[in-house]
Amino acid sequence: MGTETAGMARELTVLVVEDDRALAGRVSDAIGQLGWRPLHVETAQAARELLTRQSIDLIYLDRMLADGEDGLNLLAWFRDIEGAAPGTLVASSLSDAEDHIYGLDQGADDYIDKPFDPDELKARLRALVRRVSPVRTPPSVVVWGRLELRRDSQVALWAGRRLELMPLWFKLLLVLTEHRGEWVSRPALWRLVWPEQARVAPRDYVINVAVSNLRKALAACEDGPRVETGPRLGYRLVMPE
Fold first, then answer.
1. N or C terminus of the chain with fewer C-beta within 10 Å?
2. What's the confidence (pLDDT) of residue 62?
3. Quick one: fold of 3-131?
4. Which residues in the chain belong to E strands, given as ranges?
5. Does the domain formed by 141-238 have CATH 3.60.20.10?
């Protein structure tokens, strides 16, 4: 562990959301000098997906990202899923007082203007970790590419738009999504989606109807995922290339 944080009980993980790769490298170097572990993504969407799989203590968040999305949308996403964001330091060339106020009102814990000195960045990160409690995205959320599933509310979104799914269709989609492109056999699908019927042989008609209805719902997604059927293999969810 680095000498600057030798008293820390554990290594912290900091997510760097920055589309400028050179700057992201310098930020990651500064985080490493603190004895912490940096992870880097270039878009808010990539951050969403990583946050559902990886425990994150702090976020360094650029505002103006290459895909056109405001980095602050990531903080709005935490509010949407009723989860608290990890401690977040927003970095931006939008340096007016109004920009600072807006960022802080959206849920940022601190705001640093670009360009900044690496020593100031480290000082702000050290101060931030003293003020906030490490939290993470609730494990109830699953994100795969542009598909987002929220178990607790049974809400499914594709590219930010809500899908109209019956509870059974949502459960079927959730099982297939959790397998991330791997085949799920009909017996396994039956046990996972209809656990109350686990001792009964899979009912082909029930499975076929549920899969058919899910396919119709997914057909409404522009360039959306699709359910594939494989002889003797079962079913899998395939994302567009």
1. C
2. 95
3. Rossmann fold (3.40.50)
4. 13-17, 37-41, 58-62, 87-92, 110-113, 141-144, 147-150, 155-158, 161-162, 226-230, 234-238
5. no
